[in-house]
């Protein structure tokens, strides 16, 4: 523990290994390398003193330093340790200084830092969805990078073991995604009190980041003597050393009261001091006058830092008396002056803890009430006094329940764990009686949302059941709750329970509640489809569509869902009539107000997904964007994950791999904060598909195995698509037999009964490629013929996939004319609905067929278009396939006569590149010589090879030398 001499901090005693770690961290930071330094040790061992030394060293070297501390009794203050470190600094920033962060990040940060409240928008309090918290974490990371732009930064966080849940999740994120700039994150914590999430995060921290965990060791006997400034022969030394076990804080506390008494070594238990140390601290307090102890008790209730006026109100003293009491506490070194003399704080958290615990419980209860009233009277943010209210309000206090409910709503997006605690207290305080049922329903619904956000899906489910019990049987709100419950049950892997719940509601709906019955029928169909029970799903969807009628918004939503489900589940049922039923919902959604959509939100999301299924991708993405914004501003926050999943699928169909990857990463980060395995499976499946399209085989297989639960290709439910894309990745790897095994496991059997009809075209196209790779052209053609021809009348993209499959079979049979025609037609069909990667693949096959026909110019056009499409979307492997096909085409083209004439076909820059290559230079050396990028040189070479009909650098070199000889 630090001692103050003349107002200064005395130099450290001992700690050679620890000081070396501080030196390494500061030196690396001064050289521009960020990292993490974590100090682990028992209470009082000296972690805080080491952090103080670290920040002092950094300040002396001119580095930017921010310091914050978690508090034992304020663990419900969201992001408390980060707010303590940064809020005052952010309050002093000018508006222009925040511009570097960008408006979106500032909006997210406004939900965290009170000083940025003026920058808040409605979306800053948008949702309890983990995906929203993930965006806040990214904004915080960006903040650190911006703050460190001009100068290296030290963020020192003390007592991390007392951090609130939001701070824990943020630190977890930073350990896995550390700041990119010159930022040193230094933190101190007690290892056995640290949250398990942070303990795991420390073990799994980003290995590319400079990172060190230092176990702070006890002092030796000699160092203890130096700390206490007593001689080695002093009879008290051995006693104090044994009792303190080398813990500097304990040694100092004991030395203050050590006279004739003998202190036996206490039993060290994490989270509390040895009995002898507690006795010493209490002795220190007990010898203070009653008024001074009362002021100390009030200060312990308020927490660090505190001001004299607030101490006066909480202790029920006049201000002069409170000031005099604080002066005495400063003289006795119980509290210390902070913040330039305007505020005070306890010298150590253990001193505050002992003070707080030793106040009488009844007095402490009332003191929290006075603290809440005092802070509220000063118009302090509700977050600053909600925890006082929580500790002082009594059941039946309707006003306190409303304040806590408001506070809970304000942090639902940033700290759902805190929100859940306050909502639980508000429920306890709410008066009993039917007149308060409506408020109870709202509190239970919000608590269910918060519980889901912190990964307590089972708790969320139980709370929604309580809501159903309170809602009247004829309430319009029942259906929405049932749909939410169904999603939660499915996320918990309880599809049968979800189905039973919906069917029970179907029975309760009665014949008069047509809308409720239709909704229940459709939800049952969706459950069956997700479980691979395609035929049963179709039957429920048909019943729903038959019952649905009318032109109102709800009828349009239901009709769209029913029609899409029928097309997705019934082979040969696709028709223009069903397409019209789906597409009629688009103008209905566009015309509806936010309030109307919010009233039927689950159906809205499902209807938008129906629009995506029928290939109106631009409309679906536009509607998903609106739905996301609406969900963040309403009570439908737990639907955001469903929107993210569906939007990610739309991006995948479009070939927008970057957008799909961003959605999948958000989804995965969010899923890791919950207990929903389904969300993780979907995120991994999307990442598997993205990696496959990019040609990153290893990553595709890694994500595929995560989604499928190991090396076994068996699939079910949401992970089924991971089986398809894993098989495609295995094909890219050159293992068609293994790819076929995985694909057959994914589709169940050759009947494909468990595969949705609308998913069959892309699945069958993969099977065609697998069979062709195995050399079985007949089998490939059999799979291609199974793509429903009727789809072509109404779904151009899937018809384009059919053309793609047949074009590959025709090329294998050397029927190039037909293959070229189908490839071109398929490209146009896929382009018409925005399926750009499939368009590119069609053009690639068309180019190959045209090349075989000797139509080289036409082939080059198709190859060029395909290459541009793949390059724009980051499909690297496909881009390389086009380049390979172009080179093969060049090798087949007739040679021009006269090497010199051939070089004249090149541009001046291309001739420069050709000359340098002929000298034996690498692409990188050519790039450095011409001051261009290696990729530019590669592009020049590709064009040179095409123009000169060569396929290698050696062939180009031969032409260049031949041209010289001709010239000579």
UniProtKB/TrEMBL annotation:
Pfam family, one: AAA_16
GO cellular component terms given for this protein: cytoplasm
Gene3D superfamilies in the record: Tetratricopeptide repeat domain (1.25.40.10), Winged helix-like DNA-binding domain superfamily/Winged helix DNA-binding domain (1.10.10.10)
InterPro entries, per the entry: AAA_16 (IPR041664), P-loop_NTPase (IPR027417), Sig_transdc_resp-reg_C-effctor (IPR016032), TPR-like_helical_dom_sf (IPR011990), Tscrpt_reg_LuxR_C (IPR000792), WH-like_DNA-bd_sf (IPR036388)
GO molecular function: adenylate cyclase activity; ATP binding; DNA binding
UniProt-listed GO biological process terms: regulation of DNA-templated transcription
Domain HTH luxR-type: 899-964
Record keywords: ATP-binding, Nucleotide-binding
Domain of life: Bacteria
PANTHER family per the UniProt record, alphabetical: TESTICULAR SOLUBLE ADENYLYL CYCLASE, TRANSCRIPTIONAL ACTIVATOR DOMAIN
Descriptive protein name: Regulatory protein, luxR family
Taxonomic lineage: Bacteria, Bacillati, Actinomycetota, Actinomycetes, Pseudonocardiales
């Amino acid at each position: 523990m630090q001692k103050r001499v003349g107002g200064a901090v005395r130099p450290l005693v001992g700690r050679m290994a620890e000081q070396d770690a501080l030196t390494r961290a500061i030196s690396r930071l001064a050289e521009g390398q960020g990292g993490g330094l974590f100090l682990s040790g028992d209470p009082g061992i000296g972690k805080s003193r080491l952090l103080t030394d670290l920040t002092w060293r950094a300040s002396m070297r001119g580095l930017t330093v921010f310091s914050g501390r978690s508090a034992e009794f304020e663990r419900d203050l969201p992001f408390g340790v980060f707010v303590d470190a940064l809020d005052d600094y952010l309050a002093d920033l000018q508006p222009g200084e925040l511009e570097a962060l960008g408006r979106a990040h500032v909006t997210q940060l406004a939900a965290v830092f009170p000083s940025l409240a003026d920058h808040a928008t409605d979306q800053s309090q948008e949702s309890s969805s983990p995906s929203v918290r993930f965006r806040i974490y990214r904004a915080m990371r960006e903040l650190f990078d911006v703050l460190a732009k001009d100068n290296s930064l030290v963020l020192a966080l003390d007592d991390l073991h007392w951090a609130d849940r939001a701070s824990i999740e943020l630190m977890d994120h930073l350990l896995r995604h550390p700041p990119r700039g010159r930022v040193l994150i230094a933190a101190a914590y007690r290892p056995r009190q640290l949250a398990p999430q942070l303990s795991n995060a420390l073990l799994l921290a980003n290995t590319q980041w400079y990172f060190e965990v230092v176990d702070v060791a006890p002092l030796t006997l000699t160092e203890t003597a130096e700390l206490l400034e007593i001689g080695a022969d002093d009879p008290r030394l051995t006693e104090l050393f044994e009792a303190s076990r080398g813990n500097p804080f304990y040694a100092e506390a004991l030395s203050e009261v050590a006279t004739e008494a003998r202190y036996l070594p206490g039993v060290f238990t994490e989270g509390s001091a040895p009995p002898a140390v507690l006795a010493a601290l209490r002795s220190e307090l007990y010898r203070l006058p009653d008024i001074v102890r009362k002021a100390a008790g009030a200060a312990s209730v308020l927490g660090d830092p505190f001001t004299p006026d607030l101490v006066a109100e909480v202790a029920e003293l006049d201000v002069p008396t409170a000031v005099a009491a604080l002066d005495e506490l400063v003289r006795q070194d119980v509290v210390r002056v902070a913040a330039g003399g305007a505020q005070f704080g306890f010298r150590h958290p253990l001193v505050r803890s002992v003070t707080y615990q030793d106040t009488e419980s009844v007095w402490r209860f009332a003191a929290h009430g006075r603290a809440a009233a005092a802070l509220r009277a000063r118009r302090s943010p509700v977050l600053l006094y909600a925890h006082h209210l929580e500790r002082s309000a009594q059941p039946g206090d309707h006003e306190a329940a409303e304040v806590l409910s408001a506070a809970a709503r304000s942090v639902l997006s940033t700290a759902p764990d805190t929100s859940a605690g306050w909502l639980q207290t508000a429920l306890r305080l709410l008066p009993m009686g039917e007149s308060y049922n409506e408020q109870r329903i709202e509190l239970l619904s919000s608590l269910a949302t918060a519980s889901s956000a912190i990964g307590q899906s089972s708790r969320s489910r139980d709370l929604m059941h309580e809501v159903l019990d309170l809602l009247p049987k004829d309430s319009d709100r029942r259906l929405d709750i049932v749909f939410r419950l169904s999603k939660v049950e499915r996320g918990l892997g309880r599809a049968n329970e979800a189905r039973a719940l919906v069917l029970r509601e179907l029975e309760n709906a009665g014949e008069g509640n047509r809308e409720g019955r239709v909704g229940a029928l459709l939800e049952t169909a969706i459950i069956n489809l997700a479980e691979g029970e395609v035929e049963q799903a179709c039957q429920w969807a048909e019943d729903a569509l038959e019952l649905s009628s009318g032109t109102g918004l709800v009828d349009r939503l239901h009709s769209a869902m029913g029609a899409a489900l029928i097309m997705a589940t019934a082979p040969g049922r696709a028709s223009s009539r069903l397409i019209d039923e789906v597409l009629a919902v688009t103008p209905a959604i566009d015309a509806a107000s936010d309030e109307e959509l919010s009233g039927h939100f689950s159906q809205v999301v499902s209807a938008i997904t129906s629009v995506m299924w029928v290939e109106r991708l631009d409309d679906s993405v536009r509607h998903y964007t609106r739905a996301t914004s609406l969900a963040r501003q309403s009570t439908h926050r737990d639907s955001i994950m469903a929107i993210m999943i569906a939007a990610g699928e739309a991006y995948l169909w479009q070939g927008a791999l970057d957008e799909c990857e961003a959605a999948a990463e958000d989804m995965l980060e969010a899923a890791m904060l919950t207990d929903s395995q389904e969300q993780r499976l979907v995120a991994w499946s999307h990442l598997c598909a993205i990696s496959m399209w990019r040609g990153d085989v290893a990553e595709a297989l890694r994500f595929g195995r995560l989604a499928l639960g190991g090396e076994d290709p068996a699939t079910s439910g949401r992970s089924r698509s991971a089986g398809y894309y894993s098989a495609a990745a295995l094909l890219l790897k050159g293992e068609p037999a293994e790819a076929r095994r995985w694909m057959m496991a994914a589709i169940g059997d050759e009947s494909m009964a468990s595969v949705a009809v609308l998913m069959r075209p892309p699945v069958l196209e993969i099977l065609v490629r697998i069979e062709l790779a195995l050399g079985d052209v007949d089998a490939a053609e059999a799979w291609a013929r199974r793509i429903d021809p009727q789809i072509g009348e109404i779904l151009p993209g899937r018809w384009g996939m059919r053309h793609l499959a047949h074009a590959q079979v025709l090329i294998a049979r050397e029927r190039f004319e037909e293959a070229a025609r189908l490839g071109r037609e398929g490209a146009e069909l896929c382009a018409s609905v925005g399926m750009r990667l499939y368009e590119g693949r069609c053009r690639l096959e068309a180019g190959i067929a045209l090349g075989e026909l000797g139509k080289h110019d036409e082939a080059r056009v198709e190859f060029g278009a395909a290459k541009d499409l793949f390059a724009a979307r980051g499909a690297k492997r496909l881009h390389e396939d086009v380049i390979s096909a172009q080179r093969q085409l060049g090798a087949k083209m007739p040679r021009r006569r006269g090497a010199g004439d051939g070089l004249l076909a090149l541009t001046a820059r291309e001739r420069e590149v050709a000359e340098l290559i002929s000298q034996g230079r690498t692409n990188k050396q050519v790039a450095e010589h011409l001051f261009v990028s290696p990729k530019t040189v590669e592009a020049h070479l590709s064009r040179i090879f095409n123009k000169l009909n060569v396929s290698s650098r050696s062939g180009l070199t031969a032409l260049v030398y031949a041209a010289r000889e001709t010239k000579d």
